[in-house]
Amino acid sequence: MGKTLQRWAMKDFGAAHLVQETVALPQPAAGEVLVQVKAAALNYRDVMVVENGMGMALDWPQVPGSDMAGVVVAVGSGVTRAKVGDRVVSTFWHGWHDGAAPAGIAALGGPLPGVLADHVVLSQEDIVLAPATLSDAEAATLTCAGLTAWTALVESGGLRAGQTVVVQGTGGVALFALQLAVAQGAEVIVISGSDDKLARAQALGARHGVNRSKHPDWAAEVLRLTDGRGADHVIELVGGDNVAKSQAALAQGGRLSVIGLLDDMAFNGSIIPFLQKRLTVQGIGVGHRHALENLVRAIDRAGIKPVIDTEYGFDELPQALAHQARGGFGKIVLRVG
């Protein structure tokens, strides 16, 4: 093992301020592990953190990125959750292990130091064992996107076989929601502006695809496809005026999982449909460590393979972020180790 590590860091906002740098390799303190990072997955959040910090006060230099898979290469005293040689993935939140989120939790990659480095030191509380059935690149996608979909549908949503789920788009969270819902025995309707992406989503198990460019009132199509009943669960990834369409697409007693803000940070819509349909609205902020452990077991048992659009080399972070910003079919991943 060398005495230095390579990492990406930013000293101001904007992709132009991202630089690769060499720093001393830290050693794990008590309760910490040193992980050789093998792969790191990007999220739209990373694009926003680089651009403007999402309103957070960051300490420069800031290392971005929250999602990684790697191998433990050293442990500090008192570590019991992992040993040298274990394959692990990072948790998104530092300090949220189970139950309701405690006050003051913070995420890796902003405001806490991130994982876009060839080695990282993490608390043993901020890792879980990686799925045995996934590659490093696949395992890295679980931390944020996979866990967000799992929390929305299973941990909080109580999804059951025979229910109908509407998924908006074909990004990382959306495709995880599709795959997890199909594995649970649910029927999935995917909304997208691309016939090609809809065909690919149907190949993954979606029952129906609705092209929002051809059907701007896509909620009416959902009602038609469900014989007027509506969906039991809508994964809301857009925000703004799209929320009203999500409301209209839901069945009586349906559940709206508010996850994304790809179009607008506002939440626009009348309160009347919520009352008339007795809807449940839940905000999803990824999830806790225990839920990630549950997801890992489900991934291994169900044989789910995360969808990766493109893998980039570690030196290609700017190109990978640009790809993430314009969107992909599934996840964007950096090969690190």
UniProtKB/TrEMBL annotation:
Residues 11-334 form the Enoyl reductase (ER) domain. One of its GO terms (molecular function) is oxidoreductase activity. SUPFAM superfamilies: GroES-like, NAD(P)-binding Rossmann-fold domains. Pfam families: ADH_N, ADH_zinc_N. CDD domains: MDR7 (cd08276). This is Alcohol dehydrogenase. It comes from Andreprevotia lacus DSM 23236.
